[in-house]
Amino acid sequence: MWITPEEVLLANALWVSERANPFFILQRRKGHGRGGGFTGLLVGTLDVVLDSSARVAPYRILHQTGDSQVFWNIACGSSRKEITEHWEWLEANLLQTLSIFDNEEDITTFVKGKIQGIIAEENKNKQTLEDEDSGKFREAELKMRKLFGMPDEEKLVNYYSCSYFKGRVPRQGWVYLSVNHLCFYSFLLGKEVTLVVQWTDVTQLEKDAAVLFPESIRVSTRDTEHYFSMFLNINETFKLMEQLANIAMRQLLDNESFSVDRSLPKPCKTLKNVSTLKRDLDARAKNERYRAMFRLTQDERLDGHTDCTLWTPFAKMHVVGQMFVSNNYICFASREEDLCQLIIPLREVSIVEKADSSSVLPSPLSISTKNKMTFLFANLRDRDFLVQRISDFLQRTPDRVWSDSKEVLVSGSLESPSPTTPFLTPPSPSEAFSGRYYSPGLPTATQGLDPPRQSWNIHFFEFGRGVCMYRTSKTRELVLNGIPESLRGELWLLFSGAQNEMDTHPGYYSELVEQAMGRCTLATEEIERDLHRSMPEHRAFQNEMGIAALRRVLTAYAFRNPNIGYCQAMNIVTSVLLLYCTEEQAFWLLVALCERMLPDYYNTRVVGALVDQAVFEELTRECLPLLYERMQELGVISTISLSWFLTLFLSVMPFDSAVLLVDCFFYEGIKVIFQVSLAVLHANMEQLLSCSDEGEAMTILGRYLDNVVNKQTVSAPIPHLHALLTSGDEPPPEIDIFELIKASYEKFGSLRSDVIEQMRFKQRLKVIQSLEDTAKRSVVRAIMTDSAFSLEELEELYVLFKAKHIMSCYWGASTTAAERHDPSLAYLEQYRIDRGQFSQLFTALAPWGCGAHTPTLAARLFRLLDQNKDGLINFKEFVTGLSGMYHGDMTEKLKLLYKLHLPPGRLRLGMVFFFLPEEKVKDYKYYLRMWAKEKEPKKETIKDLPKMNQEQFIELCKTLYNMFSEDPLEQELYHSIATVASLLLRIGEVGKKFSNNGALEEAQLEVTTTEEEAKDDTSVSSYSMVSAGSLQCEDIADDTVLIGCGDQRPGSVLDVDWAITFEQVLASMLTEPPLVDYFEKKLDIRAKMAACRFQRAVERQVSSSSEHEFSQLSG
């Protein structure tokens, strides 16, 4: 690559000159290429260990003039081919021009200007992403692609110096972290170690501290473990590895490719050796933490944060914390947890004002909202810049009128109506029936209990009400004591963040309902099946009005998010939401649950719930070790916890009690569910330890949860179906839900949300990889009955096929990954590859190698397997094609080859039509038998295959010649196929005579076949004696046009009446023993698959660094 001219004082230090002319020198780095001796080994080792630019470029071109002692480095290259192209360009374009100059300074100035012009021209065509990366980082990216054979689409994120433990011997080198791979390279005194691990293969990622591996990172795959240590910044490296592994898991889960965030703010200064992708990932991590902390939507992006203080009028003090500014919100979090948290939507802001600074209140900033609340921030480091950023975001907020004042930012009048939708009091049943929403009257505790409502009214007076309310430890205390039912919907919306999303999307739910109603999908069928199972014990869902509301909410969400659609347990949660909210509010609460608070819980494989189940097991092991061992023996934890998490205890606990846990969940998040689950196990520890089997443990926990009661409610308890089934003779003691919640905070309140997220990541790797293994086993079991491959062979083929599919997610293809993946289909039909990827697998695995003709044969087989003509084939179709080549008998293999050379239109699947006689009326059993017979696939016979014309026959012969080119019996096979080809040419000529008699075509075909078969029986020996010269080899070897192009081969005249059948081809082939032996030979795919595994480069070690081996390694 051309580089900006750099001054070089010592041109020959550690470099060897290979070419020279009066103005330029081409040099090779010592230690690279052939020879070099001990000095070369030492230099090569230094280049790998030290962070020098020379280790990236083994070749360079210097500019020199006769009298000057200064050299200028103008180009570098990672291969001899690349540097030679630059050298030849210089000789062709600059040498003659430079000889005209008289002044050497002018020559140098001209060369430097020319090179800089070339670089500027190249950069015009490059993306902004590449322009932002430093030159040194781009060189490292080129080195990575060269060393590990990566395409240009593979982007390097960062690289670090470290040691890789191969056995007990550390190898110092560099680890390259790209979007899709972890790569390591080391070269020490002639020993070269190369490692490539796909992130999608990683099953565990941990930081370890052991005697042999001090402060190391362990990367585990299904097959092995890799240890990396001696990092300068191990925490940064580990966090980046976690992010990249998490992205890979999302690819496996959702088939979503990694896309660069091009809206990142420009860095104020160029960061040395930090790529744009690294900044992108750092920004994503900060955004995720910010959104999780304040329950904001997925499109919210953090612009920046700064230390400050906030005046809290309820405590009469300044609270130290941080202010966060994003495109739609200003948020504050105190340094001390739970002391104070604040969310100010910019749509609510009316005034932003810089107050006068003082020694008591330095750099204050006042923010006023439309509901006449004022927030005073102080101790802001760069107040002017902060005000300008807030001003920029406010200008993008709709419906704002700006004054010319620079100090005060004023929207319209303070009395203007707020865009925030006010909380609606649940209407009466008669009003609900006439409206769009549903909220029936409830037998609630609000009929006789005023103290909880009075406490909340006092809280609203002191801390504010609505989205800008101060959230403090007092707020948590009130939530834990239970939210009044008249306020439950309002506060659920507020604490979950659903209120903000609903306010910014007015009318969205109504539009979804109109679009979704009347549609029939798999999700709507499942919804209809579960509607009447949603809290059937509650009177609100014992009538059509409640059922219709539930149907609309679930159907609207399935239409909004087809990746989730509908999952069992969503109906139970949604029915509870509808008891306290309008339909629109329940919809946005469901959005918050499925997409933010319970991520991946309700997808097709309930991955999120399985991950939290694994986290719960790990917490049980840490907090209740004795009980954990016993529960593992019984296998109870995995059985009970899934329903607890999926329905938030609503399906296993009396309604009045479970809804209080939902209150806590909306405020605290998933943390409270873990706490209560641990508290339930702890309360039943003695009984569980004495259990003899799983059923007994389930009964103990089921009865305990059935008797968790809410003693503050005045209404009659709603009977719980589970309680009716598990109740015994003696009623067990009642457990107060408030006491259970209090115990969970006292015993397990030290759980932190960030620790849970870390545990979730660790378990997510295991769960998703376990699901992938389950999918593989399911596919293999489904195919084994139809395939002759062994279990191990099918599993390995699935791994190779899946790797090609995953590759389409990040290395580009003709179709997007989403189009290739349909999670509603069976596992074996979910993942698909296109023609290019199939061609690569065919070349690597197929037994019929045809040299340069292989891609053509692969394209024909792909066309044959792609029955629905969508340009993609699934794993079952892929195995079907391979199975025919490896395990079919001679007839099946020849039939496959024959089909591959017929045009697509001639290979339609035959259909069976049954004509029923009219004179007799049949009963229903007869029609059922006819229908079943129609559904049975018709087995294809050799008589069903269409005839082959002369051009197609020549293509077939060419394929056979190419197939035999690398066989040990090459000459015998050539002679046999020439004999058979001559025979078939004569058979076609004889058949043509019959076709010219004017009879019907079908009759002619029968006569031709009969005559030719008789001829084969009586005079085969005469045809077999025809010499190979009867069929011109030039016709076979010359390139021919693919079938379907419509062009004939140059210099040839095809006989349009000439044709042969498959029966004639088979009969002719059977006359030649070499051909029979070739096609009847047993083939083994295991050697091909082993070569593929080696090609994937899991780990390679090369004993020398010669240029020949270096090029092999790069390829």
Structure in a nutshell:
It comes from Scleropages formosus. The protein has 1115 residues and is α+β, with helices and mostly antiparallel strands.
Total count of strands: 27
Query: So how many helices?
Result: 45
Average predicted confidence as pLDDT: 77
Placed side by side, the strands forming the largest sheet appear as 10-11-12-6-7-8-9-27
Major sheet, described briefly? 8 strands, antiparallel
Low-confidence stretches: 51-55, 127-132, 267-271, 400-449, 908-921, 998-1051, 1097-1115
Q: How far apart are the termini? A: 19 Å
| Global outline | globular
How much beta, percentage-wise?
Answer: 5-15%
Quaternary structure type: single chain
The Rg value, from CA coordinates, equals 37 Å
Structural class: alpha+beta
Residues in helices, as a percent range: 40-55%
Provide an overview of this structure.
The chain is of the alpha+beta class. It is built from 45 helices and 27 strands. The strands form six sheets. It has an eight-stranded antiparallel beta sheet with strand order 10-11-12-6-7-8-9-27. The protein is globular. The relative contact order is 0.05. Residues 51-55, 127-132, 267-271, 400-449, 908-921, 998-1051 and 1097-1115 have low confidence and may be disordered.
Task: List its traits.
1115 residues, alpha+beta, eight-stranded antiparallel sheet, 45 helices, disordered C terminus, calcium ion binding, GTPase activator activity, membrane, Rab-GAP_TBC_sf, transmembrane helix
